[in-house]
Amino acid sequence: MASTDYIPHISYDSVIFGFSGDKLKILLLEYHNTELLALPGGFVKNTEDLNDAVRRGLEERTGLKNIYLEQFYTFGNYQRHQPQVLKTILEANGFDSGGEYRWMLDRFITVAYYALINYNEVVPQPDELSDFCKWYPVDQLPPLMLDHADIVAKAIDTLRENIDRKLIGMNLLPEKFTMKELQHVYEAILGVNLRRTTFQRKMLASDLLIRHEKKYSGEAHKAPFLYSFRIK
Amino acid sequence: MASTDYIPHISYDSVIFGFSGDKLKILLLEYHNTELLALPGGFVKNTEDLNDAVRRGLEERTGLKNIYLEQFYTFGNYQRHQPQVLKTILEANGFDSGGEYRWMLDRFITVAYYALINYNEVVPQPDELSDFCKWYPVDQLPPLMLDHADIVAKAIDTLRENIDRKLIGMNLLPEKFTMKELQHVYEAILGVNLRRTTFQRKMLASDLLIRHEKKYSGEAHKAPFLYSFRIK
DNA sequence: TTATTATTGTCATGAAATGAGACAATAATG
DNA sequence: CATTATTGTCTCATTTCATGACAATAATAA
To answer: Which domain range does residue B184 map to?
Structure first.
């Protein structure tokens, strides 16, 4: 990770959404020997496309390829520049903040992306500066480093705006799912309760879903159908 | 414009929309002694907020303060890097592309914004590298430099998505306007014809407009009311 | 003064989408 | 076979929207 390999002053951060236990969650890193939680992020190589850099970083962190990824905002306030925070992290990891890693103390403008992944397919991998990589529900986030709380808030806003225009449910659920599970994804993202019959009618009318066999859960009531999304 | 004043590798470009003659138009620069048309853009000072930098550049170009401004995408493909294009422009202006301006040949990741302005209040000002600064209708654009055509296309897409959520008409029209003028703004942005009665009903029901006196144009028909937007 | 013309503001009508609840079907259990 | 919880679908009222009809009106022509 020599400074000459990367474009200086530019980073990316990714808000990685997953869905589990009826809650919308994101992946956060915790740095060694500090109490700072942060979004997974990284830098862009000199001859690399910005979007490719983000995809590369995500694949390292999740092990998944072909992740659903969307850029949503670039954060460039001068106030983001807090070199002492990076210094703390570097030194807590035993790196010399005056040497090879000096460039990481510079001012960075960061391009933010959100990703949607299937929670069950992922084993989160921490990076070389962090030891934890854990899921946190978006309605119970701990304090985050720098302006990362603003970045998460904007990511959720964007997700809400996009919920009916992009196939968000598809990327947060397994291949096959019940109508109730899909409804819970919508409810977790929008933060409201939806009416079951109206939701079901709207989804079926949208022609996005294919109905499959029933799912017998072993519980004492009618078994729901499984669905998948028509377009991949 | 010394390299040390600005963050390297980061630029912004602005798509400045105006409305005139029932057409949606944008401002383009033409560089001295070249045939390259480009979006107005600039760089971010070392201790300046990104958003402030864009606002500063826009004020220089239009003379307006408090411009409606929205960031919509950051373009970071490596293919954007075409140093010979910048070299041509610099040398056509008599600058030494190997000296003080050398940094402008570097790779840049550009943050794109769109602005909405009242066409009649603006006298476009070219910058130090360009001699023309002219309005072009978005449906008849000439070839643009680098990936600027992509940037414009994405700006228009974003404008369409935002048309009902943000007060776009307000910023493209003078203080008071007729319902027909507002409809023409919508039609120019969406690229479709709208039904007069439906548009009028929807706008009145939205509660965004205040009705003022009638506008007597001298033509042989009923005079329309003037409207303004309720919130500023 | 009165008829003409183009445009505007509003209403009437029917179609489509949505909200809210009713109800039968059904998978397991007692 | 009755009970229970949940699901799939239907009904009905309400709201929204598309479309066309029509009267009001500002200037001009007769």
So the answer is: 175-229
Residue B128 exposure: Cα atoms within 13 Å on the Cβ side: 7
Calpha distance B209→B173 (Å, rounded): 13
C-beta separation of A42 from A48 below 8 A = no
Do B147 and B221 belong together in one domain? no
Looking at the structure, tell me whether residues A62 and A136 fall in a common domain.
Answer: yes
Closest CA to B13 of B23, B22, B26, B3: B26
* pLDDT tens profile A136-169: 999 999 999 999 999 999 999 999 999 988 888 8
pLDDT above 90 for B128: no
Helix (H, G, I), strand (E, B) or coil at B1: coil
Please choose, from the candidates A129, A164, A139, A121, the residue with its C-alpha nearest in 3D space to the C-alpha of residue A41: A129
Beta strand A6-20 pairing with A109-116: parallel
| Same domain as A31, residue A136 | yes
The predicted pLDDT at position B232 comes to 54
CA A72 centroid distance within chain? 12
Q: What is the pLDDT of residues B9-56, one digit of tens each?
A: 999 999 999 999 999 999 999 887 788 899 999 999 999 999 999 999
- Measure CB to CB from residue A10 to each of B46, B71, B109 and give the nearest one: B109
Q: Is B69 on the interface with A (CB under 8 A)?
A: no
Q: In the prediction, which pLDDT does A232 show?
A: 55
Nearest by Cα to B93 from B22, B146, B30, B139: B30
- Nucleotide closest to B220 measured between CA and C1': D27
Tell me what the mean pLDDT of segment B90-98 comes to: 86
B205: its two tokens? 């029901």
Distance from CA of B151 to the nearest CA of A (A): 15
Residue B146 has pLDDT above 90, yes or no: yes
Q: Report yes or no: B227 and B211 within 8 Å, Cβ to Cβ.
A: yes
Q: Is A49's Cβ below 8 Å from some Cβ in B?
A: yes
How far apart, in Å, are the Cα atoms of B153 and each of A177, B72, B114, B149, B184?
37, 11, 11, 6, 20
Do residues B62 and B156 both lie within one domain? yes
Which residues in A lie closer than 8 A to residue B75 (C-beta atoms)? 50
Number of structural domains (chain B) is 2
The confidence score (pLDDT) of residue B48 equals: 97
Q: Judge whether B148 and B77 are in contact, CB under 8 Å.
A: no
> Are both A114 and A158 inside the same structural domain?
yes
